[in-house]
Write a structure and sequence with these properties.
The structure is a homodimer.
Chain A (H helix, E strand, L loop, with lengths): L19 H19 L6 H8 L3 H8 L2 H28 L5 H13 L3 H11 L6 H17 L7 H29 L5 H9 L6
Helix pairs in contact in A: 1-2, 1-4, 2-3, 4-5, 4-6, 4-7, 5-8, 5-9, 6-8, 7-8, 8-9
Chain A binds a DNA duplex through helix 3.
Chain lengths: 204, 204
DNA sequence: GCCTATATCAACATCGATGTAAATTAGGCG
DNA sequence: CGCCTAATTTACATCGATGTTGATATAGGC
């Protein structure tokens, strides 16, 4: 009944030997799932190990320590977040950069894989250094919008304002959007619609 | 050198006997400080006890358990948040409900005493029931805005949209506003200015 | 001034998370 | 096929957080 047990077949080897990359990858996927489902405190060596059918000592072997696992998890999720923001940049550099499409792209970036929740955890924990890769992604976003706008039409200051605005809303929506929309009787898509509508007012 | 030791005067009683309310109050103040300064994981019985010069067993006596202390802390901070939102309602019912004043009021509500960070912690932990008192405060806010607007000028749907918008931004700013503004080179007041400027567009 | 209720403490017990050391085995390579 | 590296496990050690118990002292009431 426990997670690692898939049955009583005797033919399977008792131990499965993974490459270090496989082992780390599986562990991080499991840890991410635990973070999203049960919160930061659920990310324990034994819990992660149980999810992928290894022992907690094995995780220490691959990550050095529990802090090493947490750090790797943060790095992985921050990488996903910056990748997703990179897709927004690509969108803006193509022709399809309509307000609603850009909004969806940024909101998805914070929602996918629990990136917004992770960022909240990082800030609450005080490990701000893990957010450093996001800085470049955010600045790329500013640059992409700048390129797209006609000369002088939108100053850099207006653009950073727009990015601050959309990022705050996307982050907030990813973390407390659910409960808040419920309190207000608003549907799932409300925040995105509002942001998409307001976005053009920054660039006029 | 330990925290409780202020010197070698002999006249002071070795034990200070507090009323239960005093003891609980001091503990919650200390716990809140620990949450803001060092994150949720820093709120341990020993740490809180050390801050106020008692033993951890004493905290268990007053709160029943560690979970009881956490729950009391959440209740206290949620009460402060709802009180602060109540002040926004009062502001709206007076004559001074200018967009900037309302914006400041809501942003302060999420920033004061770490209310925004606490809300993030509650959501990440999954203890959504602790947020229940906020529901009424948020709905009061909707009602207050509704009263203030001329008949039919702003539908209830537009108002809930405005509240969702301002709450998301205020929450986001309270949690990741600092790092994000730093990445963008924006000053402390940026988000509030933006929100105050956009707020009227909801009600026209 | 004494008595009582209880706030407080010291010492102990427990439990889970983390970490360590040594044995075991999977799987590649000669 | 047999060997060797290292991924994996088992067993043990540690540490901190939580909880329990019985003793102690303090403040208010008589």
């Amino acid at each position: 009944m426990s997670i690692g047990e898939t049955g009583a077949e005797a033919g399977r080897p008792k131990r499965r030997r993974r490459t270090p990359d496989e082992a780390r990858g599986e562990a991080i996927v499991a840890a991410r799932r635990l973070l999203i489902d049960s919160g930061p405190t659920a990310i324990t060596l034994k819990a992660v190990a149980g999810q992928i059918g290894v022992t907690h000592a094995n995780l220490i072997h691959h990550f050095g320590s529990a802090a090493g696992l947490q750090s790797a998890l943060m790095g992985s999720m921050v990488r996903d977040l910056t990748d997703a923001l990179g897709e927004t940049v690509a969108l803006l550099r193509s022709e399809a950069g309509a307000p609603r499409a850009v909004t969806d792209s940024v909101f998805d970036a914070f929602e996918k894989g629990g990136a917004g929740r992770l960022a909240a955890w990082i800030v609450l924990s005080g490990d701000l250094k893990h957010l450093e890769p996001v800085r470049a992604a955010v600045q790329d976003l500013v640059n992409a919008i700048h390129e797209r706008m006609a000369e002088g039409e939108a100053t850099r200051h207006r653009i950073t304002g727009a990015v601050l605005f959309i990022a705050l809303c996307a982050f907030g929506d990813a973390v407390i959007g659910g409960p808040l929309r419920d309190m207000l009787g608003r549907d799932e898509d409300s925040a995105r619609r509002i942001v998409a509508r307001l976005l053009p007012t920054f660039l006029l």
